[in-house]
Write a structure and sequence with these properties.
single chain; 74% helix; 0% strand
Length: 249
């Protein structure tokens, strides 16, 4: 008798609900811990107060985001490996069924980044977005670039197109999963871009592109490569602009 193939994904919609609750709880705990840490710095380490005061508050916010990303990633990892006793990358469909050329996806991310930057010049922001205000400080800007290249592409792809996408696809099909994951992806970036509607529209286009690649290839690696290439191009061009023109003040 031939064994039935394992269900994909091994997790369920309940695990998505647990992830949402865990994320909300983590946000509250990290926020409370962050406030306690800021009070401690003010009271006990006056020489380090500049790290949690304007214009360096971005350092605190990006560290908060980095810790939250780590907690969410660990939740997903242990849900898959401990709760369901499954392999992490295989369960996420990290690798396509057939071999792919990584180099074919790198230019997609570069072109996407250049298109977004070009559209941004045609439709300039009517006001500074929150993220633009934060990255005016050198240390904050380099921390943002580090997270944008080495953390965000992997964590965000695992969350939206690795963990969330297959559950929605099983319920609503590829089209439903594509739309929902793309909108949720852009939704989590709205707070960074608030006040800049052109930027919000553009990040939504990026989300639809990444989700479309995930749907087309039935794997997570291609969308991760594009995401990594996109973020790296954005950060590289920003740093080049800093070297040539200096930090915006």
């Amino acid at each position: 008798m031939v064994a039935a193939p394992p269900r994909f994904p091994v997790w369920s919609g309940w695990d998505l609900l647990f992830l949402f609750c865990f994320t909300a709880f983590s946000v509250m705990m990290l926020a409370a811990g962050g406030e306690a840490a800021k009070h401690l710095v003010h009271a006990k380490f006056p020489s380090a107060r500049f790290l949690v005061q304007s214009p360096n508050e971005g350092i605190y916010l990006f560290l908060f985001q980095g810790l939250l990303d780590l907690l969410i990633l660990l939740f997903i990892y242990f849900t898959i490996t401990l709760k369901y006793n499954a392999q992490f990358f295989r369960s996420l469909k990290w690798q396509p069924r057939s071999a792919i050329r990584v180099s074919r996806y790198i230019p997609v991310g570069i072109v996407l980044a250049l298109a977004v930057l070009g559209a941004s010049t045609l439709f300039p922001n009517p006001q500074e977005s929150p993220i633009e205000k934060l990255i005016k400080v050198p240390l904050t800007a380099f921390l943002f670039a580090t997270l944008g290249v080495f953390v965000a592409p992997f964590v965000e792809e695992v969350i939206f197109r690795g963990f969330l996408y297959p559950v929605v696809e099983r319920r609503l099909g590829k089209a439903g999963a594509l739309v929902i994951t793309a909108l949720l992806f852009s939704g989590v970036h709205v707070s960074q871009l608030w006040g800049s509607w052109p930027a919000i529209v553009l990040i939504t286009v990026v989300g639809f592109t990444l989700s479309s690649v995930r749907a087309h290839t039935d794997a997570l690696l291609p969308s991760f490569i594009i995401h990594l290439s996109y973020n790296s191009t954005i950060c590289l061009l920003f740093l080049i602009g800093v070297v040539v023109q200096g930090f915006p003040l």
